[in-house]
Amino acid sequence: MWRNTRVQWGLAARLLHWLGALMIAVLLAHGWWMTRFAARPRVSQYAAHADLGYVFLFLVLARLVWRMLNPTPALPAGSARWERVLAPLTHWLLYILMAAVSMVGWGLAGTFRTPLTGAVFGLVHVPQIVFDTGLHETLEDAHKSLAYLLAAVAALHVAAALRHHFVKRNDVLRRMIGGARPMV
Questions:
Q1: Gap between the Cα atoms of 146 and 102, Å rounded
Q2: Which of 21, 62, 105, 180 would be 174's cystine partner, CB 3.0–4.6 Å?
Q3: Has residue 61 been placed in a domain?
Q4: Strand runs labelled E in the chain
Q5: Share of the chain above pLDDT 90, in %
Q6: Quick one: DSSP state of residue 111?
Q7: Is 166 exposed, middle or buried (0-12, 13-18, 19+ CB in 10 A)?
Q8: Rounded (10°) angle between helices 136-162 and 11-36
Q9: What CATH number does residue 94 fall under?
Q10: Number of structural domains in the chain
């Protein structure tokens, strides 16, 4: 089933979720590695990182559209009020941070001495949105800080899913993995 229901995430939402999670992990690890250990010059590493970032931004936008067009599965009966408040807030904070990290990174790409312009993986041209090289350090710091904040909120998200699975023993995690038992 591609579409979400009130009790289960659909296949499309699950694919977008797990592909996004994988890309966040890869982008965070690659960003950390390339700024600390990659051989100089690093232009090819930054260009590859930017290409992945553009693909990730597209996936975030697709996921937002899908989320708005599909119902969100309800939290299990018996969820505390604070869980009912924090769950959607945390999800939207993740969306905001994913978009913000990507957009700031896109802006940063145009501020290098040699701007990272061209085509994503040689296929799709991405226009430069910032042209002022004087903004490089500010955008670089913002991109890094937002990425670390995204990593922290994502870790909180993972911890909450594991709590639901191992402590509360409900289907919240299984609904995103697939194989949730039908709720009666």
A1: 9
A2: 180
A3: yes
A4: 118-120, 124-126
A5: 85
A6: T
A7: exposed
A8: 130
A9: 1.20.950
A10: 1
